[in-house]
Structure formats: C-alpha cells, structure tokens
C-alpha cells in the first residue's frame, strides 16, 4: 500500500518512471534466474548468433539491389553480376540461418517449459505448511498456473519476435550509420524517444494493474470454490444469486482492466507518429544529399529500406513490450508468492529419528495467529497458552474442546506446519525444531476427516501414504480390513483403473469406500510406530 501511494504521489517524476521500470526489470530478472537454466542459456546464445547471421544477410539485400541498379545504369556488367549472385546467396544463406535459428527457438522453449514446471513445483512444496495456511491467497493453484502461462507468453513473445526485431533494429541502425551518419543519428533519436514513451507506459501498468490483478485473482478463487461446491450452491437456492454476483464482480474488474489498457493503447500513438516522422526526415535528408551531389542516387535504396526496417522493428518491439507489460502483474504475483521466506528454523545438522516407540512432551506451549486479529484492539489472537502435557508410547490421548480451542493448532504444531511462539515440543527428548522433518513425518500417521483423493488409479490413492519400499506390493497382516478386496467385491471400480476426484464412475457411496481405504492406508503408514494420529474434525 505504501509503495502504491508513493507511486501515485510521484506519477510524473522521472525518478518514479525509472523506479517502475526497475520493478519490471527485477521481476523479469527473477524469472530469468529461476526459470532459465544453463542449457537454455546456451541455446539462447546460439539463437542470437544464428539470428544475427540471418538478419545481416537479409539486410544486405537492399545494398545489393542498389548496386545492381547502379550497374545497370552505368552498363557495368561486373556490378550487375555481383548484385545478382549476391542476392541469390542472401536467399540461400538466409533460409539456412533462419532454419538454425528456429531450431534453437524450439529447443529453448521446451527447456524453459521443463524448467519452470520443475522450479514452481520445487519452490511451492518447499514452503512450510503453516505458510500455505497463512498465505492461502497467494500460494494458490490459480496464481501458480497463471504465472506459468504468463511466463510462457513472455518467452514466446521474446523468442519469436523480440530477439529477431531487436537484432534487425541494431543491425539496421549500424548499417545506416555507416552509410550515412546523419541518417543513423535521426533513427537513433527516434529510438531514444521510444524509450521515454516506454517509461511512461510501463509506469502506467506497474502502478494501476496490481489492484486489478488482485480483483481477478479473488474472482478466480471464488469461482473455483463455487464450482467445487456446486451441490451446496444449488441446494441452498443461491445459484442465480451467485451467477449475478460473479458477473457484477467480473464486470467491475474488466472495466478497470479495460480503462488501463485503453490508456496504454492511446499512449502508443506518439510512438507510431514518431517512427513515421523519422523515416520521412531521413528520406528528405537523403534526397537533399543526392540533389546537391553529396550522395549517389543508388544509396537512396538501402538508406530508405534500412530506415523503414528500423522504424518497423520499433513497432514490433512495442508489441512485445505490451505483451510483457500485460504479463508482468501475474509474474509479479508469482514472484512474491514463491519468494515468501520459510518460517521454520533450520539447523545445520538435524537429528534423524529412527523407527521405534515415540514419546512426545509439550512444554509451556504458546501460539497465536497474526492473521486472526481481535475485533477490539487488532492484536493477534492467542489460541494456546502455557500448555504442558506428555504422551507416552502406547497411550491414547483425545483432545476435546469447542471450536477455536486449539485442537487443530496442536495437530499442526506436532506435524510442524509452523513452530510454536513459546515453549517447545520434544520428541524422545529432542526439540522438534532440531529434528529432521522427513524422518519425523515418517513416524506420524495423520488421518484428516476427508482425505484428498487424487486423480489416478484406486491403488495409487490407497498406497499414497505408504513408504516407497512397500508401495509395490500391499501386504496385510491378520486382522487388517481387506479394503481393496472390499472395493472389488462391491464393484466400486477396477482396482487398477482411474479413481480420481473427477471420475464419474464413482458414486457417492463408492467414493466413501475409497476415502475409507485412504484413511486406513494413512493409519497403517504411521500408526504402528506409536506416533499420534488424529482424525480431523
């Protein structure tokens, strides 16, 4: 909020423009560091080489054309033949170079898609579960998927258009400056003007798009919740009301979004006018030089061609810039979400727990939630205060209390979603903060009230919580419920066929069978080791 107020107060200052451009640069640099690996960087370097060769060959065409015209005008057979052979070579070499450039574009795209998929998964699952609960509005499926898609759009815009246009612009400007320094200076001045306009447009997006992006994220979350809870919406008679409400919210967000981008489009008009004006001035200057005999008439062809190409590439780069600016708010949200620091303290040499009986001791436990503030003074709500008790191996302990008493908080602290603000939890005498988290979770069997059923086969879901070494074969000791056999007998679905959340073949009672099997599987994964299990409430 402070950053937004600062931006609005300094809307017209050059420092504010540069600051907004710097924010965009930092977001893109973060994406480059996280989502572009060394292999992709190698592909990009090779792409640049082939792109430079391809554009250099194509830009030689106007010069050779002018040389051919001069040869015909002066009846110089050598110039004419050289021009014809050169033009033919530009087409042949240009085709080969473009093929190689396209080859590395495809390799770069594939490598970046693989990297971003891996990086988002790694950063997302690296966050502690308490952070997922606290920052549920940021660490969402919608936010991750939208950021993934926006990065893909940016890389395609850059690889398919940005690199080629940038290389063409630079080479056109260099060749133009060699042939006529004044013409090169005119186009360079136009480039500077385009940069100034870009500062203004980038600031417009940076300042105003973030709240609009937040509105769209909130609407996407709400829509997803209502779709998943379709039964409750319809049986409550709220379907028409929800449809109208979401339509109003979408219209509000869309109008705000449209207002910004219509302003952005209006801001691009000076850039187009500036480009056309620069080409006109370049043509007038070159014509005057020919008129007074300071330049050959054949030089008009490459000068006007290169000036026109430089102007055209500026417009192409403006489209790439618009695409990048359109994607930046979503990339910024993705960056902020995945850059959230973990709240768990890490030790250099964590204690690895071995299999066996477990004793848990709660010593002066205290915890509160900052995101649940009191209505009167706005202070954090305390849910646990000076809680101390001990659970010995083989003991069964039930936590009973009203909603908000701290039952779920204790369960989360045991699984180390977060660390307690006061006191400590000790496992076999070791502070849980000093214990290797994976070795601890291997000993814990957690049974939520409604287990999450993943897309996949029934077997995949039933063995999901089992250790890797026991997943290939499911063994059952005497007295254990034959839940997978029960599934077969009742015809819920084929044991090795899909049983995900969207499987239409599973009726409600059969879904209950599957969830019961998942609960039994979760219990067997950790219950035998005397670690506490809790059925969610």
Percent in strands:
5-15%
Q: Which CATH C-level class of the largest domain is it?
A: Mainly Alpha
Mean pLDDT comes to: 80
Name the strands of the widest sheet in spatial order.
Answer: 2-1-3-4
Helix content: 55-70%
The name CATH uses for the topology of the largest domain is ABC transporter transmembrane region fold
Largest sheet: 4 strands, antiparallel
CATH architecture classification of the largest domain: Up-down Bundle
The rounded Rg comes to 33 Å
Number of domains: 3
The tally of helices reads: 17
CATH superfamily of the largest domain: ABC transporter type 1, transmembrane domain
Strand element count: 4
Described by the principal axes of the CA atoms, the overall outline is elongated
| Poorly predicted regions | 1-12, 372-376, 475-480, 499-517, 523-537
| H and E order | HHHHHHHHHHHEEHEEHHHHH
Put the structure in a nutshell.
The chain is of the alpha+beta class and 537 residues long.
Keyword list:
Type_1_exporter; ABC transporter transmembrane region fold; disordered C terminus; Rossmann fold; four-stranded antiparallel β-sheet; 3 domains; alpha+beta; 66% helix; 537 residues
Q: Can you walk me through this structure?
A:
The protein is α+β, with helices and mostly antiparallel strands. The chain folds into 3 domains: 24-338, ABC transporter transmembrane region fold, CATH 1.20.1560.10; 360-441, P-loop containing nucleotide triphosphate hydrolases (Rossmann fold); 458-529, no CATH class. It is 66% helix and 6% strand. Helix 6 (141-179) packs antiparallel against helix 7 (181-228), helix 7 (181-228) packs antiparallel against helix 10 (269-291) and helix 7 packs parallel to helix 11 (300-338). The relative contact order is 0.09. Residues 1-12, 372-376, 475-480, 499-517 and 523-537 have low confidence and may be disordered. It comes from Candidatus Uhrbacteria bacterium GW2011_GWA2_52_8d. This is Xenobiotic-transporting ATPase. The chain crosses the membrane at residues 47-65, 77-97, 157-179, 185-205, 273-292. Keywords: Membrane, Transmembrane, Transmembrane helix. Pfam families: ABC_tran (PF00005).
């Amino acid at each position: 909020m402070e950053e937004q107020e600062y931006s609005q107060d300094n809307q017209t200052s050059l420092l504010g423009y540069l600051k907004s451009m710097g924010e965009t640069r930092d977001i893109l640099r973060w994406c480059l560091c996280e989502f572009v690996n060394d292999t992709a960087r190698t592909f990009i370097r090779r792409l640049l080489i082939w792109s430079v060769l391809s554009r250099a060959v194509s830009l030689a065409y106007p010069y050779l054309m002018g040389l051919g015209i001069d040869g015909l005008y002066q009846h110089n057979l050598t110039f004419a033949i050289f021009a014809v052979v050169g033009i033919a070579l530009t087409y042949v070499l240009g085709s080969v170079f473009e093929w190689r450039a396209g080859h590395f574009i495809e390799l770069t795209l594939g490598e970046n898609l693989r990297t971003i998929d891996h990086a988002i998964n790694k950063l997302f699952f690296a966050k502690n579960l308490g952070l997922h609960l606290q920052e549920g509005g940021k660490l969402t499926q919608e936010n991750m998927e939208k950021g993934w898609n926006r990065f893909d759009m940016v890389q395609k815009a850059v690889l398919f258009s940005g690199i080629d246009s940038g290389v063409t612009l630079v080479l056109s400007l260099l060749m133009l400056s060699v042939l006529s320094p004044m013409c090169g200076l005119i186009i360079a001045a136009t480039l500077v003007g385009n940069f100034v306009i870009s500062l203004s447009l980038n600031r417009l997006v940076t300042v105003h798009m973030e709240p609009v992006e937040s509105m769209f994220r909130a609407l996407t979350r709400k829509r997803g919740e209502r779709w998943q809870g379709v039964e409750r919406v319809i049986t409550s008679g709220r379907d028409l009301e929800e449809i109208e409400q979401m339509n109003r919210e979408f219209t509000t967000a869309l109008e705000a979004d449209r207002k910004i981008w219509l302003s952005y489009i209006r801001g691009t008009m000076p850039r187009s006018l500036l480009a056309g004006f620069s080409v006109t001035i370049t043509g007038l200057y070159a014509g005057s030089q020919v008129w007074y005999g300071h330049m050959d008439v054949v030089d008009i062809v490459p000068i006007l061609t290169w000036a026109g190409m430089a102007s055209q590439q500026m417009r192409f780069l403006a489209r790439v810039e618009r695409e990048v600016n359109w994607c930046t708010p979503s990339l910024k949200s993705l960056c902020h979400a995945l850059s959230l620091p973990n709240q768990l303290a890490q030790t250099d040499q964590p204690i690895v727990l071995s299999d066996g009986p477990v004793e848990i001791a709660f010593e002066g436990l205290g915890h509160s939630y900052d995101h649940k503030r009191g209505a009167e003074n706005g202070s954090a709500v305390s849910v646990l205060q000076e809680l101390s008790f001990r659970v010995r191996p083989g003991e069964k302990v039930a936590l009973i209390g009203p909603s908000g008493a701290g039952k779920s908080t204790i369960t989360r602290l045991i699984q180390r979603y977060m660390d307690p603000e006061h006191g400590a939890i000790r496992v076999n005498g070791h502070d849980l903060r000093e214990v290797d988290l994976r070795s601890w979770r291997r000993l814990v069997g957690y049974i939520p009230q409604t287990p999450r059923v993943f897309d996949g086969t029934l077997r995949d879901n039933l063995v999901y919580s089992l250790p890797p070494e026991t997943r290939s074969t499911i063994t059952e000791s005497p007295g254990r419920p034959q839940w997978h056999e029960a599934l077969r007998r009742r015809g819920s679905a084929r044991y090795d066929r899909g049983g995900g959340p969207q499987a239409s073949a599973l009726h409600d009672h059969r879904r209950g069978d599957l969830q019961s099997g998942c609960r039994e599987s979760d219990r067997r994964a950790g219950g035998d080791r005397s670690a506490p299990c809790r059925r969610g409430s």
